[in-house]
Amino acid sequence: MSIELRNDYGTIDITNDVIAQVVGEAAIECYGIVGMASRHQIRDGLTDILGKENYAKGVIVRNIGDETHIDMYVIIGYGTKISEVAYQVQSKVMYTLKKTLSLTVDSVNIFVQGVRVTN
């Protein structure tokens, strides 16, 4: 599935995989995020932190009519306030999608899949 944007010059199709990759990159830059987790924990392994090339596995992009909703599965660092980290990730993702893809997102849902001790 993809999102179609129209402008004076024509149309642009942006696939959900591209959106998921942009979202994953934006989330990793936020303080308190250790990594992205797989949304299919049982199949992919419970404790795996996804690498840079697999960020899309930890993000679900849902298009319902004209609305876009994003579900993210993250692992947070021990000792950080989960609600603050989640808020920062939501803000960063919405800002990044608006600036890079000119895409307005209706909701960004954060699912904390684990807490890790970092050095």
Describe the structure.
This protein has 119 residues and is of the alpha+beta class. The protein has three helices and seven strands, in the order ββαβαβββαβ. It has helices at residues 16-28, 41-44, 82-101, and strands spanning 2-7, 10-15, 33-37, 49-50, 59-64, 67-77, 107-116. Strands 3, 4, 5, 6 and 7 form a five-stranded mixed beta sheet that branches. Strand 1 (2-7) and strand 2 form a beta hairpin. Helix 1 packs across helix 3. The longest helix has 20 residues, at 82-101. It is elongated. The N and C termini lie far apart (39 Å).
Task: Describe the secondary-structure layout.
Blueprint: E1 2-7, E2 10-15, H1 16-28, E3 33-37, H2 41-44, E4 49-50, E5 59-64, E6 67-77, H3 82-101, E7 107-116
Short synopsis of the structure:
The protein is an alpha+beta fold. The chain contains 3 helices and 7 strands; from the N terminus they run ββαβαβββαβ.
- Percent helix range: 25-40%
The number of helical segments is 3
Cα separation of the termini: 39 Å
| Mean residue pLDDT | 85
Which strand-content bin applies to the residues?
35-45%
Q: What is the N-to-C order of secondary-structure elements (H for helix, E for strand)?
A: EEHEHEEEHE
Shape: elongated
Low-confidence runs of at least 5 consecutive residues: none
- Give the total of beta strands: 7
